[in-house]
Amino acid sequence: MSKNLIPTESERRIRPDGLSKVSGEMKYLTDLSFPNMLYGKVLRSTEPHAEILSISIEEAEKLSGVRAIVTYKDIPGLNGFGLIFPDQPVFCKDRVRYVGDAIAAIAADTEEIAEQALHLIKVEYRKLPVIDSPELALRLDSPKLHEQGNILHQSKYQKGDVEQGFRDCSTVVEETYDLPRQMHAYMETEGGIIVPETNGNLTVYVGTQHGFKDRFQLARILNIPEENIRVISSPMGGSFGGKDELNIQPYGALLALKTKCPIKIHQSRSESVKSGLKRHPMKITMKTGVNENGEIVAHKVKIIADTGAYATLGPAVLDFAIEHAPGPYIIPNIEIEGLSVFTNNGVAGEFRGFGGNQITFALEGQIDRLAKKLKMDPIKFRLKNLRKTNDLGPLGQQVVPTNGAYDVLSQISKSPILNKQNDKEVSQNWKVYGKGIALTMHGGGLGVDRIDPSGGRLTFTRKGKIEAAFGFEECGQGILAVIETLLINEFNCSVQDIKIIIGDTDLVPISGSSTASRATSMVWHSLKRMEASFKTQLLELAQKVTRVPINILKMGPNGIWMKVNGREDKLMMTYKELAQKMPRKQEIIVQTSFDFPISPDAIVGGSHYLYSFASVLAQVEVDLLTGKTKIIRLDQSVAAGPVVNPLGYKGQIEGGGAMALGYTLMEDSIMEKGLYVSDNFDTYLIPTICDVPYQLNVAPIESLEDEDSFGPRGVGEIGTVAVAPAIARAIFDATGCWINKLPISPEYLLKLINSRR
Q1: β partners of residue 698
Q2: What whole-number distance in Å separates Cα of residue 347 and Cα of residue 345?
Q3: Least confident piece of the model among 210-224, 421-435, 474-488, 562-576
Q4: Alpha carbon of 482 to those of 16, 646, 701, 712, 748: distances in Å?
């Protein structure tokens, strides 16, 4: 079943953090302050690749107001961090590999003094050759950036005989697609406060997507037990994957331990650009062939990803791209090869879509080119090759049966934009109009062979609250609203009856990372596992207190209700009253822990079991004189199971679509010889409200197959994935120009248009 997202009055509930955000009352972690707080700054490399000959901090130490300076000599534990491979130095000792590398950190009485002290630290470099492209990194005569060489990760998948498959094809398309480096561009840059406690522990008030993983990494660096570190990770002003990795935490922690004072570090935009993660630039070559019946027979893919100087989650991003290279299509002969390559460019890592955006742009470009060559309607061509409900996953693994690909494609094909000529589409001398569609699938969770635990806890508190605790973070995606909605639905309670705790490693159970479109699904699964036991214990307590038979008691708004036949149900006792009568030694606590569901037979690392699907329809206006593209309309149909929070669901898809407009039309974090060309938003442009089309329509498809018991899937990423290929196809419809690189800047498009004249 599909429906337009028009919430009912009850579904328009204001999100728990909504009023404080729009009023400005909310204190983000970078807004906090503490007594005796000092300000921290990090000295980063000015060279993309160099040997460090000497580091002199003596002059900076003499500056009045400087309280401490730390370098590699001050690290008591592991001088390295990274979610999977701890290959990024906290402080560089003898070599820098990119301009974000840290060399020293300063604590001072004011931010201005700390900034002044940075300029007094003398670092002597011996410049080394800059490896500024994967092609250069792969040359045999290039210097090794790491001990194992310049290849971080290599992965392959093969099925059938791809060369024989191409010999059986009547039509073959081969193209290379260039995808850019993109900034996360969150409003709140990396920052927070690290507080040394009187008992020797540390409290880390820094936005992150995985507080427990941060705690683990910090414990290794500081050489102290994890239990001595408390990470408070919410709220934060956006992340999109960019704060999934450590950023300023090690520097603030080292300074806090040395000075015994709270340390505040909040990066400027320029500092964030230089040291923060980016979306992986990729060069993808695809060769795809069909037979005379229009069936895709062979598909050959080569992916080269620029992972920058260090690993972070580069291998997982590449594996995800490889997995999604066949997309939702049935192809008998496949050969996919991927390389993730070290360079002296900025570190590329986790970013909303996680490699799916890049590979989907290439794949859907191939599908559109083949449909055009075959003179077939692009939707009919897709339907002809589409996976069926019980087909295996893209890499031959078992997946939960789903007809989502067909459902979203069928839904988008009903658009009046596709089925009748719009008055606006009549060309006006220098303006032309076009429309295009694209399709994608997106795996949820971290995938097979990846540690992916989850869980939650329910408590009936002494204050009469139904308390839900999860180890997730609120990074703007609306997880608080999801938890609130699910609690109200599961227990028929009111907003006033519940208390939600997230983002604090001292107070919550391990629930895994707030990433990979997994949080909504895992909250749903957790509550399903805890619901019966929690209800039973609560009603048994109510029976004991009221002496009313348990079979006529039920949970309801504000307390325990009694079912009365033929009349309105009666409120027997409020939750507060029940809590006051609860025996002193009695506790009602239910906890669960489990792993995200994975495919039972997946053989390629990271392969997924649960998939969401989306189709996108884009309508564009192209100015032939300037090359500027305007998006008139952007529709998305999404199959991700039942909708938990209609407004949140719509916000995620619309917001993802707006972010994807930037990726498609304007965003490219260009680097020249290892240096960022743009380090601020005066020259790195992102979409404004003027760039977002007035018409953004979201049509969810909520139905699941009868045997599917996995509930709602997350939609935080999928709204970004297929926007670019839909716009590219619409531009072709308007201009006759095929697009093989992003962003589609006016200069690039104008050059293509003029080449056709």
Answers
A1: 636
A2: 6
A3: 421-435
A4: 10, 10, 18, 11, 42
Rounded distance between C-alpha atoms, residue 110 and residue 509, angstroms:
37
Query: Looking at residue 420, what is its pLDDT?
Result: 63
Question: CA 65 to CA 119: how far, in whole Å?
Answer: 15
Residue 455 has φ and ψ, to the nearest 5°, of 160, 180
Question: Is 362:438 a contact under the CB 8 Å cutoff?
Answer: no
Euclidean distance between CA atoms 102 and 120, whole angstroms: 15
Residue 105: its H or E element: strand 102-108
Return phi, psi of residue 79, to 5°: -90, 70
The residue-averaged pLDDT of 573-588 equals 94
- Are 693 and 634 in contact by the 8 Å Cβ rule? The answer is yes
For residue 539, what are its two tokens? 């009603």
Please count the CA atoms within 13 angstroms of the CA of 232 that sit on its side-chain side: 15
Tell which phi-psi region holds residue 690, choosing left (phi > 0), alpha (psi between -120 and 50) or beta.
alpha
Q: For residues 53 and 60, is the Cβ–Cβ distance under 8 A? A: no
Write the pLDDT tens digit of every residue in 511-551.
999 998 999 999 999 999 999 999 999 999 999 999 999 99
- How many alpha carbons lie under 13 Å from residue 366 in its C-beta half-sphere? 28
User: Cα dihedral sign for 286, 287, 291, 292?
Assistant: positive
Q: What is the 3-state secondary structure (H, E, C) of 565-629?
A: CCCCCEEEEEHHHHHHCCCCCCCEEEEEEEECCCCCCCCCCCCCCCEEEEEEEEEEEEECCCCCE
Looking at residue 113, its amino acid is: I
Q: Is 311 left (phi over 0), alpha (psi -120 to 50) or beta?
A: alpha
Banded pLDDT at 423 (limits 50, 70, 90): very low
pLDDT in tens, 642-668: 999 999 999 999 999 999 999 999 999
In degrees rounded to 5, what are phi and psi of residue 632? -85, -40
SS3 422: coil
How much is the pTM?
Answer: 0.96
Helices (H) and strands (E) in the chain, counts: 19, 28
Instruction: Say how far apart CA 684 and CA 558 lie, in whole Å.
Output: 51
Backbone torsions φ then ψ of 156, nearest 5 degrees: -140, 155
Can you spell out the DSSP letters for 323-347? Answer: HTSSTTB--SEEEEEEEEEE-SSPP
Q: How many CB atoms lie within 10 A of CB 401?
A: 15
Task: Mention every residue, 6+ apart, whose C-beta is less than 8 A from residue 556.
Answer: 492, 493, 569, 571
* Residue pair 702/3 in contact by the 8 Å Cβ criterion: yes
Helix (H, G, I), strand (E, B) or coil at 82: coil
Q: What is the dihedral of CA 435, 438, 444, 449, to 10 degrees?
A: -150
Would you say 45 and 346 are in contact if contact means Cβ atoms under 8 Å apart?
no
For the sheet with 122-127, list strands across it.
95-96, 50-56, 122-127
CA 428 to chain centroid, in Å, comes to 40
What are φ and ψ of residue 298, in 5° steps?
A: -140, 145
What is the per-residue pLDDT across 398-421, written as a single tens digit (0 to 9) for each? 999 999 999 999 999 999 888 765
Tokens describing residue 254: 């080292």
pLDDT for 1: 42
3-state secondary structure of 128: coil
Assign 3-class secondary structure to 456-479: EEEEECCCCCEEEEECCCCCCCCH
Residue 632 token pair: 């008139």
d(C-alpha 291, C-alpha 298), whole Å: 9
Instruction: Indicate left, alpha or beta for 147 from its phi (over 0: left) and psi (-120 to 50: alpha).
Output: alpha
